[in-house]
Amino acid sequence: DSGVTQTPKHLITATGQRVTLRCSPRSGDLSVYWYQQSLDQGLQFLIQYYNGEERAKGNILERFSAQQFPDLHSELNLSSLELGDSALYFCASSVVGVNYGYTFGSGTRLTVV
Amino acid sequence: QQQVKQSPQSLIVQKGGISIINCAYENTAFDYFPWYQQFPGKGPALLIAIRPDVSEKKEGRFTISFNKSAKQFSLHIMDSQPGDSATYFCAAAQGGSEKLVFGKGTKLTVNP
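The joint structure predicted for all components is written out below.
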Protein backbone atom coordinates (compact mmCIF):
# COMPACT_ATOMS: atom_id res chain seq x y z
CA ASP A 1 0.00 0.00 0.00
CA SER A 2 1.58 3.26 -1.20
CA GLY A 3 -0.52 5.43 1.11
CA VAL A 4 -2.26 7.14 -1.81
CA THR A 5 -5.86 5.93 -2.08
CA GLN A 6 -7.85 6.11 -5.29
CA THR A 7 -11.49 5.23 -5.69
CA PRO A 8 -13.13 3.62 -7.48
CA LYS A 9 -10.67 1.07 -8.87
CA HIS A 10 -12.81 0.39 -11.93
CA LEU A 11 -15.49 2.43 -13.63
CA ILE A 12 -17.56 1.57 -16.68
CA THR A 13 -19.79 4.26 -18.10
CA ALA A 14 -21.45 5.30 -21.32
CA THR A 15 -20.44 8.02 -23.74
CA GLY A 16 -21.73 11.44 -22.82
CA GLN A 17 -21.79 10.69 -19.11
CA ARG A 18 -19.94 12.39 -16.25
CA VAL A 19 -17.79 10.68 -13.64
CA THR A 20 -15.80 11.71 -10.59
CA LEU A 21 -12.54 10.08 -9.56
CA ARG A 22 -11.33 10.51 -6.01
CA CYS A 23 -7.85 10.61 -4.53
CA SER A 24 -6.67 10.76 -0.93
CA PRO A 25 -2.98 11.71 -0.76
CA ARG A 26 -0.40 10.20 1.52
CA SER A 27 -0.49 11.63 5.02
CA GLY A 28 1.50 14.87 5.14
CA ASP A 29 1.67 15.36 1.38
CA LEU A 30 0.34 18.71 0.21
CA SER A 31 0.69 18.25 -3.55
CA VAL A 32 -1.63 16.11 -5.64
CA TYR A 33 -1.01 15.29 -9.29
CA TRP A 34 -3.30 13.65 -11.83
CA TYR A 35 -1.95 11.61 -14.72
CA GLN A 36 -3.67 9.76 -17.54
CA GLN A 37 -2.11 6.51 -18.77
CA SER A 38 -3.10 5.12 -22.13
CA LEU A 39 -1.42 2.51 -24.30
CA ASP A 40 -0.53 4.89 -27.12
CA GLN A 41 0.29 8.06 -25.16
CA GLY A 42 1.89 6.65 -22.02
CA LEU A 43 1.68 8.70 -18.82
CA GLN A 44 0.45 12.21 -19.48
CA PHE A 45 0.36 14.94 -16.84
CA LEU A 46 -3.06 16.48 -16.41
CA ILE A 47 -3.01 18.85 -13.46
CA GLN A 48 -1.44 19.54 -10.06
CA TYR A 49 -2.85 21.04 -6.88
CA TYR A 50 -0.86 22.26 -3.93
CA ASN A 51 -2.61 22.84 -0.63
CA GLY A 52 -5.92 23.55 -2.31
CA GLU A 53 -4.65 25.75 -5.12
CA GLU A 54 -4.07 24.82 -8.75
CA ARG A 55 -0.31 24.86 -9.30
CA ALA A 56 0.29 23.49 -12.79
CA LYS A 57 -1.74 22.42 -15.76
CA GLY A 58 -0.82 19.98 -18.50
CA ASN A 59 -2.70 18.32 -21.32
CA ILE A 60 -6.06 18.46 -19.60
CA LEU A 61 -9.14 18.72 -21.79
CA GLU A 62 -11.72 21.43 -21.13
CA ARG A 63 -14.23 18.64 -20.39
CA PHE A 64 -12.07 17.65 -17.44
CA SER A 65 -11.72 19.57 -14.20
CA ALA A 66 -10.24 18.94 -10.79
CA GLN A 67 -10.16 20.39 -7.33
CA GLN A 68 -8.45 19.82 -4.00
CA PHE A 69 -10.47 20.15 -0.83
CA PRO A 70 -9.43 21.52 2.60
CA ASP A 71 -8.76 17.98 3.84
CA LEU A 72 -6.36 17.68 0.86
CA HIS A 73 -8.25 14.96 -0.97
CA SER A 74 -8.73 15.67 -4.66
CA GLU A 75 -11.35 14.89 -7.23
CA LEU A 76 -11.01 14.68 -11.00
CA ASN A 77 -14.26 15.29 -12.87
CA LEU A 78 -14.60 13.99 -16.41
CA SER A 79 -17.66 15.05 -18.39
CA SER A 80 -19.16 14.46 -21.84
CA LEU A 81 -17.15 11.29 -21.93
CA GLU A 82 -15.89 9.91 -25.21
CA LEU A 83 -14.57 6.45 -26.10
CA GLY A 84 -11.08 7.91 -26.27
CA ASP A 85 -11.21 8.89 -22.61
CA SER A 86 -10.91 5.22 -21.66
CA ALA A 87 -7.64 4.97 -19.77
CA LEU A 88 -6.02 4.49 -16.40
CA TYR A 89 -6.12 7.63 -14.29
CA PHE A 90 -3.46 7.91 -11.63
CA CYS A 91 -3.21 10.24 -8.73
CA ALA A 92 0.14 10.91 -7.11
CA SER A 93 1.15 12.96 -4.11
CA SER A 94 4.32 14.50 -2.78
CA VAL A 95 5.41 16.57 0.18
CA VAL A 96 6.50 19.62 -1.76
CA GLY A 97 7.38 19.07 -5.39
CA VAL A 98 8.43 16.60 -8.02
CA ASN A 99 12.08 16.59 -7.02
CA TYR A 100 11.24 14.75 -3.85
CA GLY A 101 9.56 11.94 -5.76
CA TYR A 102 5.95 11.19 -6.34
CA THR A 103 4.00 8.42 -4.64
CA PHE A 104 1.38 7.04 -6.99
CA GLY A 105 -1.91 5.42 -6.14
CA SER A 106 -3.07 2.22 -7.84
CA GLY A 107 -5.20 4.09 -10.32
CA THR A 108 -8.78 4.11 -11.56
CA ARG A 109 -9.45 2.21 -14.76
CA LEU A 110 -12.10 4.06 -16.72
CA THR A 111 -13.88 2.30 -19.56
CA VAL A 112 -16.24 4.34 -21.71
CA VAL A 113 -18.62 2.22 -23.80
CA GLN B 1 6.08 16.02 -29.44
CA GLN B 2 7.68 13.37 -27.29
CA GLN B 3 10.21 15.02 -25.00
CA VAL B 4 11.65 11.82 -23.56
CA LYS B 5 12.26 8.91 -25.90
CA GLN B 6 12.64 5.48 -24.34
CA SER B 7 13.90 2.26 -25.85
CA PRO B 8 13.41 -0.61 -26.25
CA GLN B 9 9.63 -1.03 -25.97
CA SER B 10 10.10 -4.54 -24.64
CA LEU B 11 13.04 -6.53 -23.36
CA ILE B 12 13.50 -10.19 -22.52
CA VAL B 13 16.45 -11.17 -20.34
CA GLN B 14 17.53 -14.39 -18.74
CA LYS B 15 17.80 -14.63 -14.97
CA GLY B 16 21.18 -13.34 -13.86
CA GLY B 17 21.64 -11.21 -16.95
CA ILE B 18 21.95 -7.44 -17.30
CA SER B 19 18.92 -5.43 -18.38
CA ILE B 20 19.62 -2.09 -20.05
CA ILE B 21 16.96 0.52 -20.84
CA ASN B 22 17.84 3.76 -22.58
CA CYS B 23 16.29 7.21 -22.64
CA ALA B 24 17.09 10.37 -24.58
CA TYR B 25 15.84 13.90 -24.08
CA GLU B 26 15.96 17.20 -25.93
CA ASN B 27 15.17 19.79 -23.30
CA THR B 28 18.46 20.91 -21.74
CA ALA B 29 16.51 22.55 -18.91
CA PHE B 30 15.67 19.12 -17.48
CA ASP B 31 17.57 18.65 -14.24
CA TYR B 32 15.94 15.68 -12.53
CA PHE B 33 15.78 12.21 -14.04
CA PRO B 34 13.89 9.49 -12.14
CA TRP B 35 13.08 5.93 -13.09
CA TYR B 36 9.79 4.35 -12.12
CA GLN B 37 8.85 0.68 -11.90
CA GLN B 38 5.26 -0.42 -12.49
CA PHE B 39 3.80 -3.86 -11.81
CA PRO B 40 0.46 -4.90 -13.35
CA GLY B 41 -2.47 -3.40 -11.47
CA LYS B 42 -0.28 -1.00 -9.54
CA GLY B 43 0.82 2.57 -9.91
CA PRO B 44 4.39 3.47 -10.87
CA ALA B 45 6.84 3.46 -7.96
CA LEU B 46 10.01 5.53 -7.76
CA LEU B 47 13.02 3.28 -8.23
CA ILE B 48 16.05 5.56 -8.47
CA ALA B 49 16.75 9.12 -9.60
CA ILE B 50 19.74 11.18 -10.73
CA ARG B 51 20.64 14.83 -11.29
CA PRO B 52 22.95 16.00 -14.09
CA ASP B 53 25.84 16.88 -11.75
CA VAL B 54 26.76 13.19 -11.43
CA SER B 55 27.38 10.64 -14.18
CA GLU B 56 26.31 7.55 -12.30
CA LYS B 57 24.19 6.54 -9.35
CA LYS B 58 23.93 3.06 -7.95
CA GLU B 59 21.39 1.59 -5.55
CA GLY B 60 21.74 -2.13 -5.05
CA ARG B 61 21.38 -3.88 -8.39
CA PHE B 62 20.05 -0.73 -10.09
CA THR B 63 22.36 1.84 -11.69
CA ILE B 64 21.59 5.01 -13.61
CA SER B 65 24.22 6.16 -16.08
CA PHE B 66 23.91 9.76 -17.24
CA ASN B 67 25.57 11.38 -20.25
CA LYS B 68 24.85 15.11 -20.20
CA SER B 69 26.58 15.94 -23.49
CA ALA B 70 24.67 13.24 -25.34
CA LYS B 71 21.43 14.04 -23.47
CA GLN B 72 20.98 10.39 -22.66
CA PHE B 73 20.51 8.34 -19.54
CA SER B 74 20.07 4.66 -18.96
CA LEU B 75 19.00 2.16 -16.34
CA HIS B 76 21.07 -0.95 -15.77
CA ILE B 77 19.66 -3.83 -13.76
CA MET B 78 22.41 -6.21 -12.75
CA ASP B 79 21.75 -9.87 -11.93
CA SER B 80 18.18 -9.51 -13.23
CA GLN B 81 15.60 -11.60 -11.39
CA PRO B 82 12.11 -12.82 -12.39
CA GLY B 83 10.74 -10.47 -9.72
CA ASP B 84 12.14 -7.55 -11.72
CA SER B 85 9.64 -8.31 -14.50
CA ALA B 86 7.66 -5.07 -14.77
CA THR B 87 7.29 -1.99 -16.92
CA TYR B 88 9.97 0.64 -16.41
CA PHE B 89 9.50 4.32 -17.16
CA CYS B 90 12.15 6.97 -17.40
CA ALA B 91 11.08 10.53 -16.73
CA ALA B 92 12.44 14.05 -16.56
CA ALA B 93 11.57 17.33 -14.90
CA GLN B 94 12.98 20.81 -15.10
CA GLY B 95 13.72 23.11 -12.24
CA GLY B 96 10.69 25.08 -11.15
CA SER B 97 8.30 22.73 -12.93
CA GLU B 98 5.96 20.51 -11.00
CA LYS B 99 5.36 17.95 -13.71
CA LEU B 100 7.21 14.86 -14.80
CA VAL B 101 7.54 14.05 -18.49
CA PHE B 102 7.55 10.29 -18.94
CA GLY B 103 8.96 8.01 -21.58
CA LYS B 104 6.54 5.49 -23.05
CA GLY B 105 7.85 2.61 -20.98
CA THR B 106 9.77 -0.64 -21.41
CA LYS B 107 8.18 -3.95 -20.56
CA LEU B 108 10.90 -6.12 -19.02
CA THR B 109 10.49 -9.88 -18.80
CA VAL B 110 13.11 -11.85 -16.91
CA ASN B 111 12.93 -15.55 -17.67
CA PRO B 112 13.85 -18.01 -14.92
